[in-house]
Design goal:
The chain has two domains: 195 residues, 3-Layer(aba) Sandwich (Isopropylmalate Dehydrogenase), CATH 3.40.718; 141 residues, Isopropylmalate Dehydrogenase, CATH 3.40.718.10. Helices cover 39% and strands 22% of the residues. It has twelve helices and twelve strands. The strands form two sheets. It has a ten-stranded mixed sheet with strand order 2-1-3-12-11-4-5-10-8-9, sandwiched between helices. A hairpin with a 7-residue loop joins strand 6 and strand 7.
Length: 358
């Protein structure tokens, strides 16, 4: 008798609507596991966030990485609060995890989702893109500083750090990802016309890695021109790879062009699998709707599906997404998508769909 695979997941709801959408996703995933009976899953709550910071003076304990390494993956909600500067909350929690755990591949699938309407009349068949963001270097490497603070000649530097090993590993991951998709097409986003050091190295490494993937059609695009292409010729795009800053911006644009950031997921991956990967919705803490019970849980459902796929439950992930899509297609939508359902209403509808899988 073969025992079912079992997974231990760190639940880090964080701040704002993060607590609401993570709770929603846990309900749905636990129901899925119980219904399919093909795997077991256990979520462990970890209370890191702004409330923890206000009580302890830091967002995470000193042994946070050791704590996370005990799990197979993490499901993260959001970080950020109106009364704490964003750079303190982000560096205190999310970036304190991403960098040290070497979650260097940030993957953001974007497509026109049931229940959303693509605002682009140029996207006659909707949007189906996969964005790969380098997640550990660039302007987010933490290099730089400030001097002469408070003086008229105060200076601040933000050093964009690029290493050959960092560029090569994300580029190889992006080419492998593009190779796995039907179109086998990759666009490398850069800004090497004006950033003549780091971005030129980015271009050079991209060309070197490309030689190992002769079946992948690839091109290079300056980031400013890429924004135009995303709007004017969306059908020409499939997989995109870019730096930490560039793809942070382009991925939000992509979600908006597809219909709503409320359904946009993301994965923070360690492709070596030496460390647990972290999965999170893109939308952030959204304090303007916190506590109202109307947060859209779909992005977290999709993130949870990506998590299931990553740990090896691809069939369960596909069935979860089918259930979510059926609910959205039926018009059971939260207000951000023009619907009238609340968060729990969407959860209940997805659970009802899961029950049909028996």
């Amino acid at each position: 008798m073969t025992s079912k695979p079992a997974y231990r997941i760190a639940s880090i709801p964080g701040d704002g609507i993060g607590t609401e959408v993570v709770a929603a996703a846990i309900q749905v995933v636990e129901k899925l596991a119980k219904t399919l009976e093909t795997f077991q899953i256990e979520f462990t709550h970890i209370p890191w966030g702004t409330a923890y910071y206000k009580q302890n003076g830091r967002y995470v304990p000193e042994d946070c990485l050791d704590i996370l390494r005990k799990f197979d993956a993490g499901l993260f909600g959001a970080v950020g609060a109106p009364d704490v500067p964003d750079h303190i909350s982000l560096w205190g929690l999310l970036l304190a995890i991403r960098g040290p755990l070497q979650l260097y591949a940030n993957v953001r699938p974007v497509r026109t989702f049931p229940g959303t309407k693509c605002p682009l009349n140029t996207a006659t068949d909707g949007i189906d893109w996969l964005l790969v963001r380098e997640n550990s270097e660039g302007e987010y490497s933490g290099q730089g500083g400030r001097s002469h603070i408070g003086q008229p000649w105060e200076a601040a530097t933000e050093v964009a750090m690029f290493t050959r090993v960092g560029i090569e590993r994300i580029m190889r991951f992006a080419f492998e990802t593009a190779q796995s998709r039907p179109k086998k097409q990759l666009t490398v986003v850069t800004k090497s016309n004006s950033m003549r050091n780091g971005m030129v190295l980015w271009d050079e490494v991209a060309a070197q890695v490309a030689r190992g993937f002769p079946d992948v059609k690839w091109d290079k695009m300056l980031v400013d021109a890429m924004t135009v292409r995303m709007v004017a010729n969306p059908q020409s795009i499939d997989t995109i790879v870019g730096t930490n800053l560039h793809m942070d911006i382009l991925s939000d644009l992509a979600a908006a062009l597809a219909g709503s950031i409320g359904v946009a997921p993301s994965s923070n991956l360690d492709p070596t699998r030496k460390n647990p990967s972290l999965f999170e919705p893109v939308h952030g803490s959204a304090f303007d709707i916190t506590g109202k019970g109307i947060a859209n849980p779909v992005a977290t459902f999709w993130s949870a599906a990506e998590m299931l796929s990553w740990v090896g439950e691809k069939d369960a992930a596909a069935k979860l997404m089918l259930c979510v899509e059926n609910v959205c297609s039926a018009g059971i939508l939260t207000p951000d998508l023009g619907g009238t359902a609340n968060t729990q209403g969407v959860v209940d509808a997805v659970i009802a769909e899961i029950e049909k899988l028996k």
